[in-house]
Write a structure and sequence with these properties.
Blueprint: H1 9-21, E1 43-47, E2 50-53, E3 58-61, H2 76-87, H3 97-109, E4 115-119, H4 122-137, E5 141-145, H5 163-166, H6 177-180, E6 183-186, H7 191-201, E7 205-210, H8 226-237, E8 240-244, H9 257-261, E9 267-270, E10 281-285, H10 287-290, H11 309-325, H12 328-348, E11 354-358, E12 361-365, H13 374-377, H14 382-394, E13 397-398, E14 407-408, H15 415-432
Parallel strand pairs: 3-13, 5-6, 5-7, 7-8, 8-9
Antiparallel strand pairs: 1-2, 2-3, 4-10, 9-10, 11-12, 12-14
Helix pairs in contact: 2-11, 3-11, 7-8, 12-15, 14-15
Bound molecules: pyridoxal-5'-phosphate (PLP).
Length: about 450
């Protein structure tokens, strides 16, 4: 049996050229596929639930550009809206109607949001929300959770998830110790550890920032009472609670985690689905806080391309389609079918596995469950994951090339796609149990 991944000569040439001119050949680290020991996927186009490589091979896509594409690739209403907007001009650097329309939709959908500031990436959104929280409280310390990823700004590269975890990187060089020293980190879902931090530092703690469903250490849902517990402790100490909903927004429920779990945040960060695949993100919240942002207040934050008309048009079109079709319950049902199916396939082979779906986000760990935190997520064997991953990919199923990422589902994925995925997972698990299979072929990674 051949163990070599299919490589197209076309893609290999692009990958070689990319490595000559871009660090690791990529614009963002996890795209390099290093932790699974493979050549990266070099995409040529996407359509519905599938992404196609340069050689024209289609893969069932559960990455969906790391979350934004809840309607699948090249969803016609989004494509048409962007094309229309482009004909009116690519960027204005001036106020325009579409940004007001998208802000109004966010305020209508997301609980507690009265005002919105658009930015260009989730990193900018979380960075700006923390600046605002520090300004509003006059306190510098922030608390985050191990394995949560809030983008690559300096304060967040402390026990971070996503690519930082995938590549087993320590906290990044280049972040001054004075900056990382202002970020405290404790295990996810651990209110006792939170209490210890509040007892010692509560009066200096400006913000607690949390992924209300952790999606950057694999998918880890909040334990019952965790989010409520954070809310109570923040209220008692005068600390602001920031829900980083860049991933969970419009995914775990129409109004995000605040709606799903009935717990309110002071500030919310959004991205991914908000821009439907274009670089759009936002921070948002109560008017009394948001009015502190320049020019109404003195907290400075700006952006040449912020509120870009193409991004706004994409976001409006995607949210309007979600409004019209209301697919949330159906997406959750199908995500649960996928997770339950994978767990059943693993169990039939006597393999340990646990997993969950939260709206259209989902995740499986190949370890005894349940997993409550980053340490639990790291119990899964990375070599087994790499073998499993590669076997799935060879059979045309594209999962995130890391055990520390959530999966996503779109409205374009059909029940037949999910059934096919479960067949592939079964075959891949059979193959992954064969340890003689070298998951790191020469030359890859
Ligand atoms: N916050 C969360 C929860 C994320 O998942 C991400 C990205 O994956 C970010 C922030 C950073 O967003 P971006 O990559 O757009 O900077």
């Amino acid at each position: 049996m051949s163990r070599e991944p299919r490589r197209s000569p076309v893609a290999s040439d692009w990958i070689r050229r990319a490595r000559d001119v871009m660090p690791g050949g990529v614009s963002s680290p996890v795209r390099a596929f290093r932790s699974v020991g493979m050549e990266p996927l070099f995409a040529a186009r996407g359509e519905g639930a599938r992404i196609f490589n340069e050689a024209g091979r289609g893969y069932l896509d559960y990455v969906l550009s790391w979350g934004p594409l809840i309607l699948g690739h090249a969803a016609p209403p989004v494509v048409e809206a962007v094309a229309r907007a482009a004909r009116d001009g690519m960027s204005f650097g001036a106020c325009h109607a579409r940004e007001v329309e998208l802000a109004e939709r966010v305020a209508a959908w997301v609980p507690g949001v009265e005002m919105v500031r658009f930015v260009n990436s989730g990193t900018e959104a979380t960075m700006s929300a923390v600046r605002l929280a520090r300004a509003a409280t006059g306190r510098d310390l922030i608390l985050k959770f191990e394995g949560c990823y809030h983008g690559h700004a300096d304060p967040f590269l402390v026990v971070a998830g996503s690519g930082v975890a995938t590549l087993s990187l320590p906290d990044s060089p280049g972040v001054p110790a004075v900056t990382s020293g202002l970020t405290l980190a404790v295990p996810y879902n651990d209110l006792e550890a939170v209490d210890t931090v509040f007892a010692e530092h509560g009066s200096r703690l400006g913000a607690v920032i949390v992924e209300p469903v952790a999606g950057n250490a694999g998918l880890i849902p909040p334990r019952e009472g965790f989010l409520e517990g954070l809310r109570e402790r923040c209220d008692r100490a005068g600390t602001l609670l920031i829900f980083d909903e860049v991933m969970t927004g419009f995914r775990v429920a129409r109004g995000g985690a605040q709606e799903r779990y009935g717990v309110g945040a002071d500030l919310v960060t959004l991205g991914k689905v908000l821009g439907a695949g274009l670089p759009v993100a936002a921070y948002a919240g109560r008017a009394d806080l948001m009015r502190r942002v320049a020019p109404e207040g003195s907290v400075y934050q700006a952006g040449t391309l912020s509120g870009n008309p193409l991004g706004m048009a994409a976001g409006i079109a995607q949210l309007d389609e979600l409004e019209r079709t209301d697919p949330f319950a159906d997406l959750e049902r199908r995500a649960a079918t996928l997770v339950d199916g994978i767990l059943a396939v693993a169990s039939a082979r006597g393999l340990p596995a646990c997993g969950t779906a939260a709206g259209s986000m989902w995740g499986v760990f190949f370890t005894e469950g349940p997993v409550f935190d980053f340490e639990g997520a790291r119990r899964a064997d990375p070599e087994f994951f790499a073998r499993y991953y590669r076997a799935c990919f060879e059979r045309g199923v594209f999962f995130a090339p890391s055990a520390f990422e959530a999966g996503f589902l779109s409205t374009a994925h059909t029940d037949a796609d999910i059934a096919r995925t479960l067949e592939v997972v079964g075959e891949a698990l059979d193959e992954a149990q064969d340890e003689s299979w070298d998951a790191r072929p020469e030359g890859a990674g």
